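Researcher: Re-running this chain for the archive, since the previous output was lost when a drive failed. Same request as before.
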Amino acid sequence: MFDLSHAAPRAAKLTVLGIGVAFLATACGGSPAPSASSSSAPAAGGISCPAPSASASAGSSEAPSTGPVPPSTTTTDVPLKLGSLLPTTGNLAFLGPPEIAGVNLAVKEVNAAGGVLGKPVQVTHRDSGDTKTDTATQSATALLAGGAQAIVGAASSSVSKTVINQITGAGVIQFSPANTSPDFTTWDDKGLYWRTAPSDVLQGKVLGNYIATCGAQTVGMIVLNDAYGTGLQKYVKESFEGAGGKVVSEELYNTGDSQFQAQVDKVVAAKPDAIVLITFDEAKSIIPLLAAKGIPGKQLFLVDGNTSDYSKVFKAGTMTGAHGTFPGTFTKDAFKKSLLTVDPKLKDFTYGGESYDAVNLIALASEAAKSTKGVDIAKKLKEVSEGGEKCFDYASCVTLLRNGKDIDYDGKSGPVTFSDAGDPTEAYIGIYEYKDDNTLSPVQEEFGKL
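Model: Regenerated structure tokens:
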């Protein structure tokens, strides 16, 4: 069980999450930050987060299948063509490399196992950019013109909203490894939109409750004013206030903004015990402003859009004690090594597992459908995610399929079981703590059902 012995007394007031979150014991020279001497910090109202489990680590993962894969009994004249619509520019560009590596690793393994329906899978990568440009629309147009039957991306919920009708309207699957906006659950997508990242309903509830276990009674927020930011803001607030806390300041900014002093000043003036940053790469500008106001790292709580390695961005100690969350189980060491074989420069692995799983699920659904058409593949995605024999990589899963077995794919991001709306119905949220060198250390995983 999750150890609450280090939490402040008010942690006892925590409400049980209505979505079935269970606390688990887990296996279980950049720009310097400004000096904190320019003003004094508001007192952190008893911030003392639960200590991580002694066994919390990114341990081993399921080993890939090494046995022979039987040939497909059905072959196709049209190979499975994938596109990726992932960020290499814009305010989420730091997420692009691990996501692209996840796609490439999966394609490599699928093709090593003989491909899909007797043909190697083809993949074309395009930049999604962000909402300041129409890069995503141009990229989606190019991928569709090139015959993509499924497109992995975008990372940003707001970017996906600009292209979802274009992609699904063409009879092509859009499969995001990172979209978390609840809006997609009810989108009229003709059954063609899917995702491996859970809705922010889960991440928001986990984060809000975790902040309460750390003893915070008041929270301030700096929030990106888009579908991702305001959606996650809503669920963090509901969860924290449901646990007896109070949100005392909520300051918004817009995509493309470069000045954040006004938001920082207002949040700090409210003297919250904890500050939640629901941002993308703008955190690199916001955190130094908070440090200059004397805010210590332990008062900061980040989310998947900005929980990243800051060891080469800020001076040592800037982030000490800060916490962050992002969907998915802890990235296991074996999987990190595999990702590094396709991109040796990787420093961050966020959503690499979700991207890898997206490709495997598409490939397996194509085999199950005996078709490479997007509309046919979509009809089999839920089926390959539930109810059958457990398997953990393409080779072992496709072997079962070709032997007439029903399969239940569980991936690198955790269990994947889809709802009729294409959402994961269960997922892990990982909680991380920053060390003195501004790198991340796993604290715990929380499993929840939606």
